[in-house]
């Protein structure tokens, strides 16, 4: 089987398609089914509340202007106004990323905030490899990385979770994440990819503060409460009850055995301790805070 077979199935055989017509059809589908409830629904990766237009925008199959005005025209119900504003703000962030890259062409390689030049990253090829392959032992992180590998796409909420985990819990340089996304995402866009990774690392313009460390367990519980997304991409955990699905290492041996889960065998133990790694990340941030 060709390495890109699953990507081909995802983009071409499951009603998505490529090209201008496919982009327009997807836009109309989103306006009809996804825009209403977008502001809340876009955070839940198992739902169809996102436009998935990013690849079409990147390849010029639909323009930001077309998307902006078509969505504005479709939002005739006053109940959709907050959803429309939120969707338009996402288009605005995309344009802001282009602005940043134009005025700061070193954005893909250099920290926007120079104080991060002295950040004590811990380059670890094995931790990076486990993150890339979705073998970290953290279910929501692994689900996201496997979605990326299988489809060439990743839900935006999950992109933030896996990004935070890489640069904060694993203390790997944000450039490693940026490079992997660049290689794997069908919608890989130089400006958005660079600006977004610097945002999550805390080194970018108007970035998320470095001390904001996503807890992948509570993120999974909050945004994938039924475990549908995790079970889709991490099927070896599908037998676990929801109580332990987001942190299987907290389950006792009987629960794990009954669920067919054997940590360290058919599913990895966590690559890091979440609580300790968060504390280490905050210590590293304090080290550069006054620079």
Description:
It is a single chain. The protein has helices spanning 5-13, 20-33, 38-41, 54-58, 64-74, 81-103, 125-133, 139-151, 156-169, 174-184, 190-201, 216-223, 228-233, 242-245, 253-258, 274-289. It has 291 residues and is an all-alpha fold.
How would you sum up this structure in a few lines?
The chain has helices at residues 5-13, 20-33, 38-41, 54-58, 64-74, 81-103, 125-133, 139-151, 156-169, 174-184, 190-201, 216-223, 228-233, 242-245, 253-258, 274-289. By secondary structure, it is an all-alpha fold.
Order of helices and strands: HHHHHHHHHHHHHHHH
What CATH calls the topology of the largest domain is DNA Cyclobutane Dipyrimidine Photolyase, subunit A, domain 3
Query: What oligomeric state is this?
Result: single chain
Largest sheet: none
Strand-pairing-aware structural class = mainly alpha
Average pLDDT, all residues: 93
Strand content is under 5%
Question: Helix fraction?
Answer: 55-70%
- CATH homologous superfamily (4th level) name of the largest domain: DNA Cyclobutane Dipyrimidine Photolyase, subunit A, domain 3
How would you describe the shape? globular
Task: Work out the number of β strands.
Answer: 0
Distance between the termini: 52 Å
Known CATH architecture of the largest domain: Orthogonal Bundle
Task: Calculate Rg over CA atoms.
Answer: 20 Å
Could you name the ranges where pLDDT drops below 50 across 5 or more consecutive residues? none
What number of domains? 2
CATH hierarchy, class of the largest domain: Mainly Alpha
Continuous helix count:
16
């Amino acid at each position: 089987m060709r390495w890109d077979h699953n990507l081909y199935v995802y983009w071409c055989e499951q009603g998505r398609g490529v090209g201008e017509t496919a982009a327009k059809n997807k836009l109309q589908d989103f306006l009809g089914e996804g825009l209403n409830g977008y502001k809340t629904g876009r955070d839940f990766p198992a739902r169809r509340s996102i436009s998935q237009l990013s690849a079409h925008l990147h390849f010029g199959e639909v323009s930001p202007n077309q998307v902006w005005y078509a969505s504005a025209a479709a939002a005739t119900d006053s109940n959709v106004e907050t959803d429309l504003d939120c969707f338009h703000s996402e288009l605005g962030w995309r344009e802001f990323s282009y602005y940043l890259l134009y005025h700061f062409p070193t954005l893909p390689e250099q920290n926007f905030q120079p104080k991060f030049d002295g950040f004590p990253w811990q380059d670890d090829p094995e931790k990076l490899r486990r993150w890339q392959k979705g073998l970290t032992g953290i279910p929501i992180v692994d689900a996201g990385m496997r979605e990326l590998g299988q489809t060439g796409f990743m839900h935006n909420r999950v992109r933030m979770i896996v990004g935070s985990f890489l640069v904060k819990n694993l203390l790997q340089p944000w450039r490693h994440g940026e490079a992997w996304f660049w290689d794997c995402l069908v919608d890989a866009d130089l400006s958005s990819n660079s600006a977004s990774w610097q945002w999550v690392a805390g080194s970018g313009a108007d970035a998320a503060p470095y001390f904001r460390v996503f807890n992948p367990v509570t993120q999974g519980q909050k945004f994938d409460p039924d475990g549908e997304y995790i079970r889709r991409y991490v099927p070896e955990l599908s037998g676990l009850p929801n109580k332990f699905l987001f942190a299987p290492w907290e389950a006792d041996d009987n629960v794990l055995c009954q669920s067919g889960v054997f940590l360290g065998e058919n599913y990895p133990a966590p690559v890091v301790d979440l609580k300790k790694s968060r504390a280490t990340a905050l210590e590293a941030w304090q080290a550069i805070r006054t620079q």
